[in-house]
Structure formats: structure tokens, C-alpha cells
Amino acid sequence: MTTVLITGTNKGVGLELTKLYAGRGDTVLACCRDPEAATELAAVAGDVEVHGVVVGDDASVKTLSTVLGGRPIDLLINNAGTVGPDAAAQNSYTMDFDGWADTFNVNTMGPVRVLHAVMENLKAAGAAKVMTVTSQMGALSLDVVMVHAYCASKAAVNKFMRLAAIDLKQDGIAVGLVHPGWVRTDMGGPNAELSAAESAAGVAAVCDQLSLENSGGFWKWTGETHDW
Ligand SMILES: NC(=O)c1ccc[n+]([C@@H]2O[C@H](COP(=O)([O-])OP(=O)(O)OC[C@H]3O[C@@H](n4cnc5c(N)ncnc54)[C@H](OP(=O)(O)O)[C@@H]3O)[C@@H](O)[C@H]2O)c1
Asked: Which residues line ligand 1 (CB under 6 A)?
């Protein structure tokens, strides 16, 4: 049994990841912005502890660190993410710069903020793992010409986590990135290819195969390697 901390667990892929790990008998530290409104999360069976955490806010994430104390965490899944401003306001001609900054704060700095907050907890677990849910749209090899601020925020988190994989090897912590597929969530919309449960199953399988040997990798939810 392991302890898994997941962000963005009130809905979408994060909610399904919570159900999956709780169903396996793991302890899930389920983080979301507004626990009182997270009714589906509250109904998940198993060992699920809900924590109110705003990944874009330093004070909120530091509070999480204090609450957790020295408790070991085996797996951190950075899942919370935002697509950012209206698509018409994030392209090469028009940019909502405040919205881009917010997108960067949540999608790029959020995972790093949470990683720093639980670093000692990961070290305490021994052989811990960190998986960040990124997007194929952050790959420099794939030009989907839309939501440029979102794409840039995911490209940036990809680069950071690749460097973190090198840094954290000395602590025995493996770091990976996963594209969860095109998923039927509020973000992916109703016409997407995968259910959130199918995506979560793929993401969890990618977490299972993450190790110090392949640390720094970027995978699809299918387990295939993703081009950078
Ligand atoms: N759906 C897709 O097709 C797709 C494709 C590629 C990558 N992804 C990535 O997969 C991850 C999960 O997305 P999803 O499809 O499950 O989307 P979702 O259903 O929209 O859920 C997004 C989660 O992130 C949280 N979140 C959004 N904005 C936030 C903010 N400003 N601060 C803190 N938390 C925030 C949401 O909390 P609130 O409810 O409080 O906003 C929610 O828990 C994201 O990182 C996304 O970029 C999704």
C-alpha cells in the first residue's frame, strides 16, 4: 500500500485517479481548491483524505506542507491544470497577458510549488515518484496551433521536470511526464476520445512503470514514449 498525493481531484482525470488508487487500497491525499463543493470526491470509497489546496497560491501550498508534517508520500501526481484564457485571447495576434501569467502559475509553477512542499515527504518514503500530467500540446515536436499560452505553460513544465529528474536522482526520486490523451472532461469537452476513467487507468499504469532507470521520460497514457 502506498500514499499518493494528487492535485485537482474534484473532477475529471484527478477524480478518477483518486477512485482508482483508493480502490487499490492506497491512501489518497486528494487535493482540490474547494473541498466543500467537491461532492463527488467526498463520495469516493476508501482511504481518501481531502485537503483544500490552491496550487497557484504559495501560502496555500505551504499550509499543506505544514499539515502533512513528516509523513511519507510515495507518489505525487501533479494533475491540476487550466486551459487558460479564452482561446481567442491567447494566440500570436492577441494575448491576455494576465491570463497567461495565471495559466503559467497554475500549470508550470503549481507542480513545482507542490513538489517543493512535499520534498521531505517524498524523501521519507524512499523510492518515491513524481508524475506531472502535462499535454501533447506542450511538445515542441507537435504543432497544434491553438491556446498558445496553455501550450507554452505545458512546454515549460516539461522542461522543468526533465531537469528535476536529473536533480532528484540523488534523492532516489523518479520524475516523469504523461500526456493523458484527449479526455471527456470539462477541459477536453464532450467529443474527446477517452473517458476520464480510461485516461486515469493509463496514467496510473505509466506511474507504475516509472523508475529511476527511466526517470525524466515523457509518455502517452498508452505507455508509449512521447516525442519531446
Ligand atoms: N482533458 C484533456 O483532453 C486533456 C488533454 C491533455 C492534458 N490534460 C491535462 O490533464 C489534467 C487534468 O485535466 P482534466 O481534463 O481532468 O480537466 P478538468 O476536468 O477541467 O479538471 C481540472 C482540474 O484542475 C483544477 N484547476 C483548474 N484551474 C485551477 C486553478 N487555477 N488552480 C487550481 N486548480 C485548478 C480544477 O479544479 P476546479 O474545479 O477548482 O477548477 C480541476 O480539479 C490537466 O493538467 C490538463 O492540462 C487534459
From this structure: 8, 10-14, 32-34, 54-56, 79-82, 106, 133, 135, 179-180, 182-183, 185-188, 192
Q: Are strands 48-52 and 218-220 parallel, antiparallel or unpaired?
A: unpaired
Q: Closest ligand 1 atom, CA of 54?
A: 33
Res 1: pLDDT: 73
0.90 exceeded by the pTM? yes
Which CATH number do you get for residue 74?
A: 3.40.50.720
Q: What is the pLDDT of residue 173?
A: 98
Q: How far is the CA of 79 from the centre of ligand 1 (A)?
A: 7
Instruction: Write out the residue range of the structural domain in which residue 39 sits.
Output: 3-220
Residue nearest to atom 8 of ligand 1 (CA): 135
Residues of the chain with pLDDT under 70: none
Count the domains in the chain: 1
Is residue 17 assigned to a domain? yes
Atom 1, ligand 1: residue with shortest CA distance: 188
Residue with cell 518515491: 128
Choose among 121, 120, 126, 155: nearest CA to 140.
155
Helix (H, G, I), strand (E, B) or coil at 21: helix
Domain contains 201: yes
